[in-house]
Each structure stands twice: as structure tokens, then as C-alpha cells.
Amino acid sequence: MDDVISVAGARLFIGNSSPASFQYQVYAGNECGELKPFECTYRGYGIVSAPPPSSGGVAICEILNILEGYPLKELGFRSARSAQYQIEAMRHAYVDRNSYLGDPDFVNNPLAHFLDKDYAAKIRAVIATDKAGVSRDIIIRDCIHTT
């Protein structure tokens, strides 16, 4: 439908059509459902966020799972090492998000995989402690590509 709007634009609303009747026609067959929140834990705290198709909650939980294995408190707030670990955790989580997550009406999101603490440990094992990583060098890991 977006293609129709981009090509025809305002002409769609000329004549007997009004924006309200057009919107009704566009959305008449759609149904809205309630989704279960996406949940994870971080150092004993419960995290509740939006589920897919939003990818933010999944990414946050993966980032926190990775960070949970580092002594961030001992490293100090805003220390170079703490910042590096946070950046690298985000870098890996966003590669996963962009590679594997999508609208659950169309793809099977491997959510349990991204919540797996062992998966977070595998990521920590490849994060260098002496230099910054390069996003394009992050390999797509053991998951089915869904997008």
C-alpha cells in the first residue's frame, strides 16, 4: 500500500474518497493483538521490554547478558575498559539483531538463543581486551538467518 500512496499521493483522496474512508479500507482486514512482554534478568534484576517485532528488548537483554560476565563495578563507572565492554556488547548484539530478528508474523525469531547465558559467554570469549573491534569483522554465529 505504501507504493500506492507514494505514486498516487493526494489523488487517492479526490472525489468521493476521504482520508478517513481510505484509512478504513487500508486497515479493515488488519487485527491488533496483545503480545507477551519480552523478559530477561540482569544480576538478579528483572527486565521487561517490548517483544518482537520490536527488536530493542531482545538487543538490550543480549547486551546485558554479555555484560553480566564482566566486573563492571570494579572497573569503575566510565572507565575505558568498562566503556569498551559496553560498546563491544552492543556491537555484537546489533549484528545479531540485524541478522536474525524480524516480524514474528513472518519469521521465526530465535529468542531463547539470545537469552542463553552460554551464548553470551561465547561472545565474551571473542571480545578483545586490548583493542576495539570492527563491526564488519563480526561473524554471523550459530543461528538460522531469518531476515
According to CATH, what is the class of the largest domain?
Mainly Alpha
Q: Give the averaged pLDDT, no decimals.
A: 83
Q: Which architecture of the largest domain would the CATH scheme give at its second level?
A: Orthogonal Bundle
Strand percentage: 5-15%
Structural class: mainly alpha
Distance between the termini: 21 Å
Give the radius of gyration: 21 Å
CATH topology tier name of the largest domain: Serum Albumin, Chain A, Domain 1
Helix fraction?
40-55%
Domain module tally: 2
Shape: elongated
Low-confidence stretches: none
Order of helices and strands: HHEEHHHHH
Major sheet: arrangement of strands:
1-2
Explain what you see.
This protein has about 150 residues and is mostly helical. The chain has 2 domains: about 30 residues, no CATH class; about 100 residues, Gamma-glutamyltranspeptidase, large (L) subunit, C-terminal domain (Serum Albumin, Chain A, Domain 1). The protein is about 45% helix and about 5% strand. The longest helix has 21 residues. The relative contact order is 0.12. The mean pLDDT is about 85.
